[in-house]
């Protein structure tokens, strides 16, 4: 194997490593940002907030009902206590009690509505809790596949890295440096395979001298894209 063959082998390993590394990063992104769980969490939060609000509203209405009842008791005590004899004053108290009764009836209607509202919100909360558990279980299942794939890719990359370390052992430092610097400039591909007398990367037709040079172990560059030519 001449040095361009070794370089081409290193490039093949590097491209495979790049590809696997990209997929590992993609898997990490998926694992970190699962939309379904985020949406389920947000729905649960809203449902919790709505239940709290409904509870609060019901408590306020109950408080109002108690206050109206207390006022009625006071008025009734006055009415039947026997201390007040003045008919006009007694009539006023009777009117007041009648008004309080109407008020209480309204408040009780509101209380009923608030209880129904709370019950509905409780149902929504229970559904949201179940939905989050389901999403989490589903995600765990999906993640198992992704985590398995990630582990597999990491194992493959370990093997490829070992092969790469062995392959670069055949190369002089300056060739390897040239390869690395070209690789960073040429989108990961420092080498081009000659295909039907053309550069396999950019398609430029190669002159006989370039073809001949590439067939020896000499490093030959494509005159157009500047990659190292490999005769194959
Ligand atoms: Zn080229």
Commentary on this structure:
The chain is mainly α. The chain has 2 domains: 135 residues, Helix Hairpins (Orthogonal Bundle); 58 residues, no CATH class. It has 5 helices and 3 strands; from the N terminus they run ααααββαβ. Helix 1 runs antiparallel to helix 3. It is rod-shaped and about 130 Å long. The mean pLDDT is 94. Zinc ion (ZN) binds next to loops. Zinc ion binds next to loops.
What is the assembly state of the chains in this entry? single chain
Order of helices and strands: HHHHEEHE
Strand order of the largest sheet: 2-1-3
- Tell me, briefly, the overall form: rod-shaped
CATH topology call of the largest domain: Helix Hairpins
Low-confidence stretches: none
Tell me the structural class: mainly alpha
Q: Which ligands does the model contain, each kind named once?
A: zinc ion
- Highest-level CATH class of the largest domain: Mainly Alpha
Q: What would the average pLDDT be, to the nearest integer?
A: 94
Q: Tally the structural domains.
A: 2
Task: Report the total helices.
Answer: 5
Query: Helix fraction?
Result: over 70%
The major pleated sheet works out as: 3 strands, mixed
User: Strand fraction band?
Assistant: under 5%
How far from one another are the termini? 10 Å
- CATH hierarchy: architecture of the largest domain: Orthogonal Bundle
Radius of gyration from CA coordinates: 41 Å
> How many strand units?
3
């Amino acid at each position: 194997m001449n040095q361009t063959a070794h370089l081409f082998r290193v490039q093949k390993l590097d491209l495979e490593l790049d590809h696997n590394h990209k997929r590992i990063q993609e898997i990490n992104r998926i694992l970190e940002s699962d939309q379904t769980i985020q949406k389920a969490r947000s729905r649960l939060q809203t449902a919790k907030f709505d239940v709290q609000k409904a509870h609060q509203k019901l408590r306020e209405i109950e408080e109002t009902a108690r206050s109206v009842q207390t006022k009625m008791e006071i008025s009734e005590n006055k009415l039947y206590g026997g201390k007040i004899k003045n008919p006009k004053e007694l009539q006023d108290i009777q009117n007041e009690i009648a008004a309080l009764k109407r008020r209480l009836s309204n408040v009780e209607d509101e209380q009923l509505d608030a209880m129904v509202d709370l019950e509905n919100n409780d149902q929504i909360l229970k559904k949201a809790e179940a939905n989050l558990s389901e999403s989490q279980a589903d995600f765990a299942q999906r993640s198992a596949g992704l985590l398995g794939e990630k582990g597999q890719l990491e194992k493959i990359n370990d093997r490829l890295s070992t092969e790469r370390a062995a392959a670069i052992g055949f190369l002089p430092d300056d060739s390897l440096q040239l390869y690395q610097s070209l690789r960073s400039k040429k989108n990961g591909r420092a080498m081009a395979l000659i295909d039907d007398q053309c550069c396999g990367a950019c398609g430029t037709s190669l002159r006989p001298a370039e073809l001949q040079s590439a067939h020896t172990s000499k490093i030959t560059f494509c005159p157009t894209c500047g990659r190292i030519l490999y005769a194959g």
